[in-house]
Structures are given as structure tokens and as C-alpha cells.
From TrEMBL:
Positions of the DhaL domain: 5-196
NCBIfam families (UniProt xref): dha_L_ycgS
Kinase is among the record's keywords: yes
Keyword vocabulary terms for this entry: Kinase, Transferase
Gene label: dhaL
Source species: Rhodobium orientis
UniProt GO MF annotations: glycerone kinase activity
Any Gene Ontology CC annotation: cytosol
GO biological process: glycerol catabolic process
Protein name per Swiss-Prot or TrEMBL: Dihydroxyacetone kinase subunit L
Amino acid sequence: MDDATLIRALVTACCATIEEHAGELTKLDQAIGDGDHGLNMSRGFKAIAAETDALAAMTLGDALKKAGMTLVMKVGGASGPLYGSLLMDMGKSASTAPANEAEVAEMFRAGIDAVKKRGKSDVGAKTMLDVLVPVAETVSEGGDLEAVRARTDEALEATRDMLAIKGRAAFLGERSLGHIDPGARSSALLIHAVCNVLEA
Ligand code: ADP
Ligand code: MG
Ligand code: MG
């Protein structure tokens, strides 16, 4: 796949899964947040979809940077700047499509470091990082797509029994227990979408 084909496929798959699951993301955020995660993600990814042609004309790195900036600008909630930082720093780390797994792992690591910085957060706080970080581990260990998918689902489910200590859910204290984190769910959806594209 050349960069343009890859970028189009990634945009299409990511936007489609967010649209399809926007209602579910909203429900999860109604349980432990303010109920706007579906809307926030949908608004951001619709704006990215509207830029598909411009993105496909860029290198993968520049496209990731531009898509990240779009999320920062279009999404009001915490998730906009956080996913925006993820994509922007992934884009800064890899100019063209990564040639091997080690480069994918490095790109992912750079993006996740930016999320940690921006969110002043790390694993164990019941956030998107509780999916992103374990999955990045599996990628850097050389895990195949099946291993990545399995780790994603396991990590997502594990957020259910975590106590939220970052983001709005932290206000709930113990009442955040028993619910999957909305941002962890959107991260899982996006990872599955990327896996499907890479497999095709
Ligand atoms: P908001 O909380 O501003 O309404 P969203 O509902 O769109 O924004 O996003 C909420 C998600 O963002 C949470 O479920 C969590 O995964 C993620 N999140 C919130 N704060 C942080 C943080 N400091 N670090 C990492 N992720 C965070
Ligand atoms: Mg919210
Ligand atoms: Mg909000």
C-alpha cells in the first residue's frame, strides 16, 4: 500500500467505527462522565473525514500531524487535545509509513508519551492510556495483529475495575468502579480499525 492508499483506508475505517459506536461511547460517558464522548469523537472524526483528499496528498507523518491538529481544534472535551497530541507526535516521529514493526512501535511510543504529558497521566488512572500503553507493549514485543487485538480487548475490560483518578470520572471516586472507561473504548475501537486496515 502506498501512503495515499493507506491514509484513505485509515481515515475511512477510523471515521466509520467512531460513527457506528458514537451512541455507545456516549452511554459509557453518561455513566462516569458528562455524556459527550460520542459527540466529541464524532465531531472530530467527521472533520478529519472532510479533509480526506488533503490528507491523502501528504506523507503519513504530515497527515497524522494535520489530523491531530484538527482534533485539537474541533473537539472541546479532554479527548480532543489528548487524541490530537497522540496523532501529532506520531506524525512527528514518522515522516513516511513505517517500514517495520520496530518503527510502528517507536511511532506509537512517541504519540503515547505526548498523551501522558498533555494529560499529566499514566497507566492505572482508568483512561485511554490503559488501552494505549499495554497495546504499545504488545506491538514493541513484536506481537502480530491477533495478539494486538486480544491485548486491546483485555486491556479495555480491565478498565472496568479501575478507580478513576484522572478526567471527569475521577470526581465519582468509587462510583467509577464497574464501568468501562469511554476513552479506553474509543482507543480500542480505533486500534481494531487500524488492525483491520493493516490486515487487508
Ligand atoms: P471530557 O471528559 O472533557 O468530557 P471526553 O468525554 O471526550 O472529554 O473524553 C473523556 C475521556 O478522556 C476519558 O474517558 C479518558 O479516557 C480520557 N481522559 C480524560 N482525562 C485524561 C487524562 N488526564 N489523561 C488521559 N486520558 C484522559
Ligand atoms: Mg465527556
Ligand atoms: Mg465534556
